[in-house]
Task: structure prediction
Amino acid sequence: VSKVLLVGVGLINGSFSLAMKHRRDVEFGGSDLSEEHLSKAVDLGIVSQSFALEEGIAWADFVLIGTPVNAIKKILPEVLELVRDDQLVVDFGSTKETICHAVKNHPNRANFLAAHPIAGTEHSGPEAAFPELYQNKNLIICEREKTNEFLLEDFLNLARGAGFYFTFMSAGEHDKHLAYISHLSHISSFVLSNTVLQKEKDGEVILDLAGSGFESTVRLAKSSPAMWSSIFNENKLRVLDSIKAYQAELDELKRMIENEEVEEVSKYLEEGRKIRKILK
Amino acid sequence: VSKVLLVGVGLINGSFSLAMKHRRDVEFGGSDLSEEHLSKAVDLGIVSQSFALEEGIAWADFVLIGTPVNAIKKILPEVLELVRDDQLVVDFGSTKETICHAVKNHPNRANFLAAHPIAGTEHSGPEAAFPELYQNKNLIICEREKTNEFLLEDFLNLARGAGFYFTFMSAGEHDKHLAYISHLSHISSFVLSNTVLQKEKDGEVILDLAGSGFESTVRLAKSSPAMWSSIFNENKLRVLDSIKAYQAELDELKRMIENEEVEEVSKYLEEGRKIRKILK
Result:
């Protein structure tokens, strides 16, 4: 039986466990700063027992860290301090470079794997977890060469059981791409929400006038502020780059609208519409 | 039998017809600049016959105009010229003020109703039409007092059959609210798409790294460029206002990220997250 300690029992770690609920060869324990989340995770069958962190690490074969990224960066070196040779610590944070940097010269670096599941929802906490979240989803693995290859192989086998396939890249590459493809989406969504809420004080009006388009574009603004403020901070320089690129694009479109260049606006939208060919 | 002429046989008018396909007391005819769309609309059962515009108007009880808004503004005065006292022309455009203005002093103003269905998808054309689009959706009616009350009543009965409920407001109010709640969503989505496509030249990378969050936020960028370039132009001043407000919000968030004000960023996101309470 593989013993898996979930450090943080919210959407990300919780869904990993629920995906394997039918398996008798994997056992899940949990550790969380929130007593409430921990007892909910037990109630929901996400973990069968709860642990203080140190105690849980001693019990586990795999330690999965699924907390906001600032917390990962902070606790990871301490967790790595406690592991035996045959244990693997995996983090599921949405940024990778500062996390990898924090344990770059750690004596137990080979017992750590940096990973990022490309899946999630705008909800958070143990109640948001569900078994299908990772079905056919991409788990990005960074700096694979720094992880003990046998421990890595064991973990990939486990994660395959949750539904994942894998891609591999450097932590810097990961953070650069994700700044544009993921972090910027969240920023534009939160900014849209704040702009509309500033202007429209009456929620009834929004509800009456919002089509499915607004709902879709603003959906990510329902995401966890603790998680996302921390991601923007950890990936600060690249997030700022992506914001600047976005601002330049927005300025260009604004100028064309101002000058009533309808044909040019239409061409601009046609360019953006090419995303159709990529996302079916 | 009520005879309804669809001027433009795409998503908007097409879905109106398909919602009433089972009814034997309503008959739909179509007119469209695109022969291809017109023959598809016949094949799909959206209309039972196709007409040249003038001929169709002579045939119809109701004339529904569901074309891009610049085309509505252009053809509406000409269409109104041709109607009899017992006919009603309805436009389904996403902006209302310039359209209402174009027929403000028209001798047949009472035979016109300005309407906007708060429903749609990112797809367009007759094949995008489907019968459930307007189920329990809001049809905004502007300047109702300028429309003949009996013709209005008849039309509301018809539209109720497509699934609509109704709200009433002035054209200016409509355009102001929609600039923020709808048009700005489309702008932020198109700009996000262009920013990502500029940066990520490799579609495979986008596909591998895009979670459902990116897909949701960028969905509206799949919308029709002809339709949206025309909306931005017709509602130019209010759209520019909404862009400026959005830019100010984005600048604020950017500044906080730059200064590593993580707590402030978190509060900002918490504000945006209040949209949860409005959109369940």
